[in-house]
Design goal:
By secondary structure, this protein is mostly helical. It has 14 helices and two strands. It has a two-stranded antiparallel sheet with strand order 1-2. Helix 4 runs antiparallel to helix 11, helix 5 crosses helix 8 and helix 11 runs antiparallel to helix 14. The protein is flat.
């Protein structure tokens, strides 16, 4: 008698040859189509802003880079200059001085406002129960909503020979210190820098107060229970939590210092002499007053690269938030 052994029959695994592949992929197809439609819809929302950027910023930027490689007076025929305009930016003593002035202004526009705003934010956040706190916040932020032309005109009056600053110095017995502040070669740049300090303190303070408002109150309560004083409480809790706001404040204020033009143009026009020249003012003068459009474009390109580089550096040195 012969016995034939057969292998046992097993049910095919899910997704095996007996399973219809179309049935497995059918639910995934509508999901992919829906995601594609959502992505396209998102790009459509961005298109108007991108077109505005391309027309009013992108195209002029490309043209500026193109002009920087030519010698051109803005009217006649342009001739190829190669890299000579960029070499002039670094060789010309007046242009180098303008970038040095911008670096000095960064101290007054960025470093000083950030430090002062941190101190004011610590005081105001602890005095939130005091009356008129909203009034003080409004007064400190007020310069941000005033036109720069108005600000420059006001400070010209304050810094004049018979202005408020000199009158105050005479009233307190410091008449020997009085001078025409914007006309003094030694202090004109510092005087403009102090205007920038007054202008940016309110912006930094609003950013820091919003950051402090997002800190969990339990952290401050725990610090008080541990016996931490106000200074220790601010250094240990508030300051580490404001890393993002400090980075934003530094970025905005550094950029405003480097690209400042209107305030200098209104108050001193780069004078006395060249004591308060800045890169943006030099680019304007070279393009419209001396007919050096190619050199002015090179100054603008170098200034743009410096701004991008410093912005990138600030973003890199800012500690990342841990997950």
């Amino acid at each position: 008698m012969t016995v034939t052994l057969r292998p046992p029959r097993h049910s095919p695994p899910p997704g095996g040859p007996d399973t219809d592949i179309g049935e497995m992929s059918a639910p995934a197809a509508p999901i992919r189509r829906r995601r594609r439609r959502e992505a396209i819809r998102g790009y459509l929302y961005v298109v108007p802003a991108f077109l505005v950027f391309a027309v009013f910023l992108g195209a002029p930027l490309v043209q500026t880079v193109q002009y920087s490689f030519y010698d051109w007076n803005g009217i006649g025929t342009a001739t190829v200059a190669g890299m000579s305009n960029y070499l002039t930016v670094f060789d010309d003593e007046q242009l180098r001085a303008s970038f040095l002035h911008a670096a000095i202004l960064m101290v007054f526009y960025a470093a000083v406002p950030v430090v002062v705003a941190l101190i004011l934010s610590a005081v105001i956040s602890r005095a939130h129960a005091m009356k008129s706190m909203s009034f003080y916040r409004t007064v400190l932020f007020l310069p941000q909503v005033i036109a720069t032309v108005v600000i420059g005109t006001i400070w010209i009056s304050i810094y004049s020979g018979n202005g408020l600053l000199n009158q105050t110095l005479r009233a307190v017995g410091l008449g020997s210190l009085t001078r025409v502040w914007l006309g003094d070669h030694n202090v004109a740049l510092i005087a403009i820098g102090l205007i920038g300090t007054w202008l940016n303190i309110g912006l930094c303070m609003v950013l820091f107060l919003s950051g402090i408002g997002n800190i969990a109150p339990e952290l401050f309560e725990a610090a008080r229970l541990d016996g931490a004083g106000r200074f220790r409480e601010f250094i240990a809790i508030a300051l580490p939590s404001l890393r993002g706001q400090i980075a934003v404040a530094l970025t905005l204020t550094v950029v405003s210092a480097l690209k400042t033009f209107d305030l200098v143009y209104i108050t001193t026009r780069g004078g006395p002499g060249t004591a308060t020249t800045v890169p943006a003012l030099e680019a304007y003068n070279r393009a419209f007053n001396t007919g050096q459009v190619g050199l002015a474009s090179a100054v603008a390109v170098v200034l743009t690269v410096v701004i991008i580089g410093l912005t990138f550096l600030i973003s890199r040195i800012t500690p990342r938030e841990t997950e």
